[in-house]
Amino acid sequence: MSERGFMVRPRAQHRSARLLRIAARFGLMAAMSALLPTCSAPTKNDGEDPRKTAGLFVANSSDFRGFHQWASYDVTDDAELAGIHDGSTVTEYINELPPSGSDEFPLGTIIVKEATGGTIAHELFAMVKRGGGLNKIAVGWEWFDLIPVDDARDSVTIKWQGNGPPDGESYGGDANSGCNTCHRDCGNDSVCAKPFAFSNF
Known about the structure:
six-stranded antiparallel sheet; 6 strands
């Protein structure tokens, strides 16, 4: 019998007590979970490109998307000295600058060279640090000829890739020249453009 004269049923009393015990138990569990370390802590390689982890970075067309948003440098004077991309304005873009003190570019480095307004209206080439024993001259670098895609996403397609132009293709308008011809003598891990000299980083 309650103070107001109402009968409290035993079943209702038991149910109320049970609910109180459950609430207390969950409160204790929540407090303990806040003190315990999480079991899903990120590992060292979370978010890292698996191609880099494997030591072989084979680039595909999506890796070049948005290259106009990367760090960019005017290398027109360098191109004129080398006698390539005649009359063009030449800009180079890099996806990631090397760490300070480096003597080689990291695996997965992508450098895109865009030449516009010259004898050839628009040229787009790239070099990618592929690794895996490719290219014994410009060690580890793979060369690309790219074609812009007008999709408002700054996309490209790959015309050719490898150690240099395949038969019937050319680089910089010179049918007798391959990419290694110039880059072999550049030092600086075969990257010729002066803004990318290791001493700048």
